Fold these 3 entries.
Entry 1:
Amino acid sequence: MEARVSAVLRVPGLLCLVHALARIGAEQEVENLSGLSSSPEKDIFVVRENGTTCLMAEFAAKLIVPYDVSASNYVDLITEEADIPLSRGAEMKGKCGTTESDLQISWLDKAYTLKLYFIKEGYNTSKGQEAFWKTNKIQFVYDSSERTYFKDAVNPGKYTANSHHLSALVTPAGKSYECQAQQTISLITNDHQKTVALLLSEVRIQPFDISADFVFSEEHKCPVDQREQLEETLPLILGLILGLMIVITLCVYHIHHKLTANQVQIPRDRSQYKHMG
């Protein structure tokens, strides 16, 4: 009887736990909004917790994966490359935290899964404590037996490629990272025999401190974009400076010519004095 009573007492607690877990799961929403992108190659992902956006990511991605196939003599091996784009409509998961967040994207029946990990840190400067966030780890899991991008791979199966000592997309806290230029991040497979290249472009990411729902904070442009922007504006600036110098030179010449034209010319030859007066 005591055991039965104890079991009955434990059931409400278990029901409360299940209800709490279900409520926590319902409070987090993940949305793939790639259909709203004007670029057919760019995907948009949003993670929301408690009805508020806590992580947003927009980017175009492609992975170049080397793999072995049999040569025509069926003895030797040759290396081919699979170009795997991130598919629209991919499944996603996300986690938001105060100092750690992550985004997990899977497509083609989870044959491919890309995981991005973000961390926020602080450091001391002459101005005091300042914070920044960055991507500190990227992982790509792929199945070389999948036939869409892999053709007759030798030893097909699931492989994992990881970044090593990664510190990418470094951005001041409270800002979003933006980079239109293509960036390449190298990932090493778990057998250390292959290097997978992750190509990212048209990137806009913010994993922390989003102040408005579905709205990125002020952007922090990557060094490549900053350099390209400078290269685009530098000829315009130089042209304006050159034009201004020409205008100033013409004005000085005009003023000088006007002043010298109004001066009385005194003849140096004494014989010309008789013609004066």
Entry 2:
Amino acid sequence: MDENFSSDMWWGTLGTIRPFPNFHPDRDAADIQTALERKDMVVLVRILTNRNNAQRQAVAQSFQDKTKQDLSAALKKVLSGDLEELLLQLVMTPEQLEAQRLKAAMAGLGTDEETLLEILCSRSRKTLQEVAAVYSQMYKKDLEKELKAETSGDFARLVVALLNKAVTVGSVQRDVQALAASLSGKKAEAGPWINILTSRDSDHLDKVLMELELETGQAVDQLVEKHFSGDFRLGLRVLVQCIQNPEVYFAQRLLTMKTSLVQGIMVSHSEEDLLPIRAAFLRLSGSSLYSTLQKHFKGEQLLALQAICRSED
């Protein structure tokens, strides 16, 4: 396993999970093997939530060398339900996790548009390219084609543009003018919103959206609400939130306390920016994420989620 997989993206200092200082992958692998034989979930949770992802990959490799078994397959045999899903997500690489979450969002009846958008809006082009490569390894399907098959119209154009974010330099003033002009006709034009919001860096877009608010005298989310509809409106709303205030967006997602969302977001952001998300959660809801988890989850699943959350705010 390449230790350097997109470490630039996954290693923020604002994460809750740090490298475990006294790390011995062979010892962890042996402890996991014993815990699996005894069906001791507490030990599994303790090890897997106290190592960072690179360390968990090393443990999985060591487990495979020692037992000739794949760690995920071994976990599946003794676990079930939500705890199984959570621990399996911890054992995946970050790219595998996002690929799996995208796949799940497109599975079954109806697409979970917001999870697609959450990942596509909040990840960099480089990360999304790596996720797309892993997606085609895992599922033998092309991510872009799958996204196109699940979406249509302006929303499909937006989703594909987000997947292939191209960073081009624009002038703030010109971008503001183009967005304002796109809203002036009878029917708002989606084109400039797709082009500009998926092809500039976030500092530039922050300025553009602030200027647009000054120029129109309305908040961007109100403009989006008023001029667009359906999936495309949802897409722009998520994109604008991820540009203006990603922590608040993720905190709002966590407020639902929906198991798949809470687990997916907490694992996926644990080494990157879960601390600011936790702070935003406290501001929005008046209670800490740590104690809110206690009201909604129990047993080893609660232990695992609180370990990822790390502490009270």
Entry 3:
Amino acid sequence: MSVMDNIHLSEFTQELPMGTFLGHLGPGLALASLGLWHITNILRVYFLKGSGQFVLRLWYPLRCPLRMLEHLELILILLFSLFAILIQIVDIQHPHFFIELDNVEHATMFFQLVIFTSFTLFAELSHLSETMLGVSCVLVASIFGQELFLLHYHSTDHIGLEGHYHWLMQLIVCVSFLTALYATASPSSFPAALILSTSVVFQGCWFINMGFMLWVPDFVARGCTTHAMIQSNGMMHGAVVCETKEAESRARALANLQFCWILSSILVFIACSCIAFGRKVTQRRQSLDYEALSSPGAHDPLATVGLKQIQL
């Protein structure tokens, strides 16, 4: 291997573009954590307030003594999005701008998050959140809509097994987009809010899965190998190549199974969480009913008569 090849491999292991393991792992963990945070809060609000008073929220405040941390979710999303844009257009090791079409596409996806979080944060600080909920919902739908558009018409040719993983990713984003549109028209729909958050968790988990299955050689399907290709900016971009059609078919089938397994795991978590929240709320209501029945005067006829006289 030549000296130049060693240099390129060194850059490949240190840079963090979307086309690397860490480039998939970072956004994947962020999306999965955000979705789980929303699912937990959605279930808590729904079971405490009931279906009649449930209203979709696009972010949830952090309940802690420090009031300055109330908007932590929006601030973290904003900072993460700005950082993601930065590493897409700036070489951190040798500070200079590099403009590659696929990097700009990735940065554009994160820019939609910047627009949403900036607007929502400003609306919250200006006490306009209730009147601006519809606008925020439209911005969320725009995030998923443009993500789906850019994934479908990506300038980087994702072919073979890698293309199949990206096609499955588009299915998840499509569900997010359609659900966000429905939630915009019906913000009181609990199923829409839950499906939207579930799809965000699914996106994050699928990003992580893609990072392992496409970029870590030990996880690549049997009969397939990862090949690195040098791009014009000196960075490495990988692709999985299968030796035979049978190996590629088997790898695609494995990807389909992973898709189902991940979704099933998320649904099991949601089902268990629903049972836990439901039992907690039921026990609290039973406790309150018992206290009401056991309180002094609950069975006092004079108190009942007095109450009737007051009502008359």
